[in-house]
Amino acid sequence: MAVIASSVEDAVAAIPDGAMVVVPRESSGVPMEATRALIRRGVKRLHLVALPTSTLQADMLIGACCVETLETSAVSLGEFGPAPRFTAAILGKTIAMKDATCPALYASMQAAEKGVPFIPLRGLIGSDILAHRPDWRVIENPFGNNDPIVLLPAIKPDFALFHAGMADRTGNIFIGRDRELLTMAHASARTIATVEKIYDGNLMDDPALSAGTVPGFYVDTVAVAPRGAWPLQLLDHYPADGAHLAEYAKLGATAEGFARYLDEYVYAKKAA
Amino acid sequence: MTDFRPEELLADTIVRLIGDVRHVAVGNASPIPALAALTLRERGGGKPYVSLLGSRRHMFFTDGGRELFDCAGQGRIDVFFLSGGEIDGEGNINLVSIGDYEQPNVRFPGSFGSGYLYYVVPKVILFRVEHSRRTLVPKVSFVSAPGGNADNVHRPGGPVALVTNRCLFSFDRAAKHFRLESVHPGHTVEEVIENTGFDFDRPDDVPVTTAPSAQTLVLMRETVAPQLAEVYPQFAERVFGVALPKSA
Questions:
Q1: Do B116 and A103 touch (CB under 8 A)?
Q2: A61 to chain B, minimum CA–CA distance in Å?
Q3: In 3D, which of B11, B9, B66, B3 has the Cα closest to residue B232?
Q4: DSSP classification of residue A54
Q5: What is the pLDDT of residue A169?
Q6: A54 with B112: CB under 8 angstroms?
Q7: Are residues B114 and A180, on separate chains, in Cβ contact within 8 Å?
Q8: Which positions ≥6 away from B142 have C-beta within 8 Å?
Q9: Whole-number Å distance between alpha carbons of A140 and A40
Q10: Is the model's pLDDT at B94 over the cut of 80?
Q11: Residue A26 reports pLDDT greater than 50
Q12: 3-state DSSP call for residue A58?
């Protein structure tokens, strides 16, 4: 049964160095407090799968040397420009990059959900994305006639890690419309989530809520982290902190500035 | 002539390119296409359907991020928008890097959904505000998605046009070639030739892009700009002066 951890630090303690961790796009509940906890702990060699893109979270984990392999379709700071530590890591060749396209990541995750080894996807043929992915194959559609199609292997993460609005004490997590969080939980061996608050009662008792719930069956650990997506948005709860993201974009532009950012906004908590 | 902002002219041009369709989807980092799609929907009294990635209010999907792609794969999305760090004369787009992929000189964010949506959405409108020889190149360094494919590849979709800060090109998929359709007010054909890294067709007399009407401008500024601020607060503030959301 799911455990309600007493702190975010405790919740992410189970994620070892070298783990494959899937995290969601910016609009689906990015666990930033948990990300800061991972950086403080100094986690290493993560295989980070950003489903299907990332912004601040991947940039910070890369800048803090937590990532060995990044598998995603894009990393940027959105309206605040390029993701500076991601860009520096690619140019400096300090991470292994597995470039994808968004639906390829969703499809690979769906294959894991179904327990099948691979899944076909349209598109990709003639692209350099495909040319640089030796793990992807092109076959002839066995039911068609001269119809090439790409096959993608399932992605089976060790952990799904996300932030949501609320969970109950049995580990059911309300995700509403952000159903890729459900796919992530289905596909991953273990799921760790942070939430804004604990819901009194059982989410499964209310049909309006249960339809948008990740069942506790799939969930290992939940921790309460109010404003746990800050400085990113949590849709239906709070907008992004634009002034802070502008400051990050500025500081992150250099290694020295990024180190100052970590000191001020990530490591400061440890010292306190 | 009514004063208009460059973003309003580009969005108005995109509105005309979209035409009469059922469903327009707008991806990441696309504030001008979003402005166009929402303007068209306001004008059409709710038609077409608009799916604005990252939005709660302007997005009907309930099956997570994959629904956009599943919907497109079935042919249920008529129009989408893509950009490129580089775009070449055959309509290939590069959202990844310049130079050798393993040792690039420049890195862009990544391909996003282009490696799929460019293939399956019937009308893909390319937009790249910066029109220069750095962005419109003879040959892209990395093909995030090709402008066309061999005949046996499933390819119901592809590029129909390219909108920049200087002009509008149409794209002929059979000939794999751009054609200059109009230059924006204040710009010239010579300037377009000078700043484009690939060859393109052009008529003897190139028209000037139609300016947005006063009615369209009112709609964009008063009705659409506040809607846009949900997903593009910085853009809405910079272009239209919409107040930024408070984050306590």
A1: yes
A2: 16
A3: B11
A4: B
A5: 97
A6: no
A7: no
A8: A128, B94, B96, B97, B98, B101
A9: 48
A10: yes
A11: yes
A12: helix
Q: What residues have CB less than 8 Å from A189, skipping those under 6 apart?
A: A156, A157, A158, A159
Angle between helices A84-91 and A255-262 (to 10 degrees): 130
The conformation of residue A263, written as its DSSP 8-state character, comes to I
Closest-CA residue of chain B to A128: B143
Please spell the DSSP secondary structure of A74-115, one letter per residue.
-BB-GGG-B-HHHHHHHHTT-SEEEE--HHHHHHHHHHHHHT
Q: Indicate the residue type of A207.
A: P
Question: In this prediction, does ipTM exceed 0.85?
Answer: yes
Q: What pLDDT band is residue A272 in, cutting at 50, 70 and 90? A: very low
Distance from CA of A126 to the nearest CA of B (A): 6
Residues of chain B positioned with their CB less than 8 A from the CB of A70: none
Cis peptide before A52 (omega within 30 of 0): yes
- Would the CB atoms of A123 and B115 count as touching at under 8 Å? yes
Q: How far does B133 lie from chain A, in Å, by closest CA?
A: 21
Which amino acid does the sequence have at A189? A
Candidates A52, A90, A238; nearest CB to B104: A90
